[in-house]
Design goal:
little secondary structure
């Protein structure tokens, strides 16, 4: 996916509940990170899914996207779909 498509999915798409992390307000519910991972990756789906049923959209490993990350303003943006 492009970075904008990944971001949309991670935020819960059209079912977004405005949670701080992808699927929860509590990072430990949805993500493996430095404080709880023992500095290892973990099997996909071992934490709670987000609103779209997607797992591991916060933490665990970096995402791979077709293009690059851009900072978004609070207003709607077009998907830049630019490959660096």
């Amino acid at each position: 996916p492009t970075e904008a498509e990944w971001e949309f999915a991670a935020r819960g798409g059209n079912k977004r509940q405005g949670l701080q992390y992808s699927g929860s307000a509590n990072l430990s519910d949805v993500a493996w990170y430095k404080a709880n991972s023992d500095l290892k990756t973990h099997p996909v789906g071992s934490k709670r899914a987000n609103e779209l049923g997607l797992y591991d959209m916060s933490g665990n490993v970096l995402e791979w996207c077709q293009d690059f990350y851009l900072y978004y303003s609070k207003s709607s943006q077009l998907n830049p779909n630019v490959v660096s």
